[in-house]
Amino acid sequence: MAHRLIILGAGESGVGCALLGKQKGYDVFVSDGGTIKEKYKQELIDNKIDFEEGGHTVEKILNADEVMKSPGIPEKNEMVKQIRAKGIEVISEFELAYRFKGESKIIGITGSNGKSTTTALIYHICKKAGLDCALVGNIGYSIAKQMAEDPKAWYVAEISSFQLDDIKTFRPDVAVLLNITEDHLDRYNYQFENYINSKFKIIENQTSSDYFIYCDDDDIITKKIEQLTIHTNPLPFSMKHEVKKGGYIKGDQMMLRIQEERVSMSIYDFALKGKHNNYNTMAACIAATTVGIRKEKIREAVKDFQSLEHRMEFVATVRGVEFINDSKATNVNSTWFALESMTKPVVLVLGGTDKGNDYSLIADLVKEKVKAIVCLGVDNKKIIAAFKDIVPTIIETQSAKQCVNASFKLAAKGDVVLLSPACASFDLFKNYEDRGTQFKEAVKEL
Fold it and tell me: I want to staple 420 with a disulfide (CB 3.0 to 4.6 A). Which of 6, 326, 389, 409 is the partner?
């Protein structure tokens, strides 16, 4: 009998795993409690993969040898509880992909903030240096699908904590951990420690031939490292002190020391601006150095990198008012970074689905830089309560168009309207991309 692989959830990860599993001879069945998007359904049909949607057939699922659970499905899901109760092995997409990577190598990037930017920058450097590589993972393209359709020598993978939760043997050759701040606590029984452990799974299988690149200025990371026995090669990066191995910024110079390689670069050459991006750029440069990319190539790539859509993306200047789309800021820390890099008075757009946010973290920056807050969400009570005493004007809007028009009215020439919501987008939008796109459309109509 073929190995029976059940896949829960038919999104990007689920369908990618179905394609890879089928190709490797598994008996694959895909089950989605909701509706499957047309493009994914077509892929399953074209590849003759058995699937169901709009509910789960319990007996079909419980005769699995193994279940691949999509990252969006929480442990408290009824079907997941039944699978666990029966003792069936549950794996993540990265675990499945890892089995079939062959000689390929993986650079895995995780962290609460900055991972998409850092992953995209590492990929950009690798591409520029001529590496045979693919950009995969949480950034939008399934690693399993990439392996099934077009395997590469290198995978540059953005990995979320949910994708790390169900790994068993997965180990990246190079692991990057940018920072850990309270995020997604709703998925971790509101225990910060569970979330920290989840992030650290990225190195649990690493060996002495691998690298672990991490921020030495992040107390949560450094405290956790003290409690662990680490089997990999640590390469810390810091903006506060010099490190013997790894990277640091002193004055306006970034210095990298990895093995014999010594690299120095002016931070004024970085395409990405802002203190938090100095960390992201440093992490990316260290990762590139560990895979043997020459410093000239790293220098070039860091200079001409284009930042991501929906991440501090300049939209337009309308009658002296600048609009910035930072829709990807789905937690308070992301918004903190956005505000920290602002030099003009800000009309701040906040709101959406709250994941247990603590707005006091940005109170000081809001007081200093924000002249008005425009809420873009269904329930804005928590935001209003947090800022009513420090921001004179707070208004509520229910659509991107309303929000942009209201923000424009509140802004004067020389101000910035910053969409950096600190919340997920699922109350009014499909996802943060949809929110950012609608915001940009509305700005273009002004």
Answer: 326
